[in-house]
Amino acid sequence: MKETFPFVTAIVVAAGGSTRMGGEVSKQLLPIAGMPVIGRTLSAFEAAGCIDDVVVVAREEDLLDIYDIIRSFGFEKVSQVVRGGATRQQSVAMGVQNARPETTHLAIHDGARPLVSVQVIGDVVACALEHRAAATGVRVKDTLKQVSDAGVIEYTPDRSHLWMVHTPQVFEKRLYQRAMDAAQEAREDFTDDCQLVERMGGIPVHMYEGSYENIKITTPEDLPIAEALLLRRQQEGDL
Ligand SMILES: Nc1ccn([C@@H]2O[C@H](COP(=O)(O)OP(=O)(O)OP(=O)(O)O)[C@@H](O)[C@H]2O)c(=O)n1
Ligand SMILES: C[C@](O)(CO)[C@H](O)COP(=O)(O)O
Fold first, then answer.
1. Which ligand is located closest to the Cα atom of residue 23?
2. How many domains does the chain have?
3. Could you list the residue range(s) of the whole structural domain that residue 226 is in?
4. 3 lies in a domain?
5. Averaged over 122-142, what is the pLDDT?
6. What CATH number is given to the structural domain containing 151?
7. Ligand 1 pocket: which of 110, 214, 223 to mutate (most atoms <8 Å of CB)?
8. CA neighbor of 168 nearest in space, from 97, 119, 110, 234
9. Is position 17 within any domain?
10. Which of 40, 119, 127, 133 is within CB 3.0–4.6 Å of 114 for a Cys-Cys bond?
11. ipTM higher than 0.95?
């Protein structure tokens, strides 16, 4: 039997409006290389040895489809599917409130990042077990510009310390709970979970260098990119 410490619960948030994708259907339900986006995401967490339990957060209108996907692909780690909130932060909070009481660490992940690998999940969880708080991300590859509302370049930031943050973002549960309560009390709402811990100060969030393949399905051109990456993995025997 597995020891109870650590007990890592993945909170997979899939309750967004998919506005930038367009269309009626949630982007998490769209097929890529023959499987719904959320199915691909959940397969990675099912296969990751460091993950003990999974809570999925979804829109009310998607619940039946999500249950269907979980049943048909046989995802045994998913213990609950709960309704999300109006913002990503609220959806994460719904997931956290429903995590099993023995949870010691939370691995918060976007349902819309189906290319996350078992290796990245394992490495960022290990980093958080050591440091209490960790995120995965990649170094910015392009030269960046700050552009004014009039469309004029204002300046070129030094990119040597700039990264794009991905998920999973992994935290000791007690720490994350404290950060979440403080942000809620201050009525602050953030697009990622690191910011909750960053704003408290005192606890450094470690960055684990992950993979450029861990893209978020955000706009329509992301779908063929994800499909091409998955087909390459299939050809290389990684799937
Ligand atoms: N109220 C929300 C908003 C976002 N998310 C989830 O958070 C992840 C990252 O969000 P994003 O890509 O911004 O998704 P959407 O909010 O759906 O996108 P958009 O801004 O285009 O509507 C996604 O897996 C999304 O489903 C969520 O669970 N609940
Ligand atoms: C959490 C996140 O995936 C980190 O990259 C991201 O912030 C989600 O929201 P966004 O509004 O698409 O940046």
1. 1
2. 1
3. 8-235
4. no
5. 98
6. 3.90.550.10
7. 110
8. 110
9. yes
10. 40
11. yes
